[in-house]
Amino acid sequence: MVSLKLAAVQAASIFLNKSATTQKACDLITQAGRNVANIIGFPEAFIPGYPGWNPFIADADPLKTSLYLQLFDNSLEVPGPEVSALQDARREANISAGIGINERIANTTGTLYKTHLIIGSDGSLLHKHQKYVPTVGEPLIHAPGQTGSKTTAQTEFGGLSGLICAENGNPLGQYATAIDYPAVHVASWPQFLNFGVEVNDLINAVGRAVAFSVGAFVIKSASVVADDEIELYGTTDEIRNFMRDEQKKRRAVIFGPGGNVITGPSANGSTEDILYADVETEAVKAYKHTFDYAGHYQKPEIFAPLFAKQ
């Protein structure tokens, strides 16, 4: 049996500023390390921030191009100096982490990826996962991932996996995660969604679904809307009012295997925070006694014909 302390970040990016947001991420890692956490999960695209402006700004508006250029110039290369800084912070804090970034490929001038990095407590970059399929307006900025189906890296406490936003609800993504038997999964989310759903209902349902099908502890991390973000593209009262309302919400939760809530969310309007939970990995094995979707509670051979080329 292994005892772990899990940490879920609910904080705002220093919007479209990769240096400042990287430093903020390092500070949060240091804070979690001082609280003797073993694993910390960060929100989607935390560095340098999630491009939430797409549905609000017309394509012909020069502001949209300006925001994209700022995002591109502040996206991270892997490897790169910002990733090295994150690795150093993990090593010094002796903590493993999953963190969301916007990624650009070195020596290119276009095409970004929504990427999740897994960094070990020794500072090693253990895995890079690019989001399978960009969601809603994201294809205007991000390309489909090129890193394959794998989502999990092995650490000293067992597997650590991560999926980004709605791909946490992808049944095949859940299966690709389950077959590597992670003990802990990071489900990362942005500061808001705006396609006609109640965000907390959606992401809690998806977080529970991952915890149930994968059979792991799930760190559900979510960003917070920042004042500087509102200033950048809150161009009407309607947009500003929406963003101010979302700014009050806190969505980070830590689930146990099967989907029970261990901690979170904190009260609306609270300050930025890190949620913590002390857990035992024995619960992962106990859950698999009944539901092991990567093993005895699955028959992949009967589903294989569904994927045969016609």
From TrEMBL:
Stored Pfam families: CN_hydrolase (PF00795)
Positions of the CN hydrolase domain: 4-281
Record-level Gene Ontology MF annotations: catalytic activity
TM spans (from-to): none
Family from the record: Belongs to the carbon-nitrogen hydrolase superfamily. Nitrilase family.
The protein's name: Nitrilase/cyanide hydratase and apolipo protein N-acyltransferase
Lineage, broadest ranks: Eukaryota, Fungi, Dikarya, Ascomycota, Pezizomycotina
